[in-house]
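Consider a protein example.
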Amino acid sequence: MNIRYFAWVRERVGVEEETIEVPASVATVADLIAHLKTLDETYAAAFDEEDAIRVALDQVHVEADTILGDAREIAFFPPMTGG
């Protein structure tokens, strides 16, 4: 799965984009976040405020309980404001 990180999430993880193999036990966005947090301290810090992180699955905004299914890309980013 291709994962993209934006703004402070990217700064904390240390990469803009990466491709990872997702374990079979990872079924939802929340499962993926929990998995990422176990990879190392940088991911744990990036997802420490997971309630503040927004998610897009194949460029569609989704909630944490969304099933990953056959998604090709997931993006994590902080809330955005417009003006």
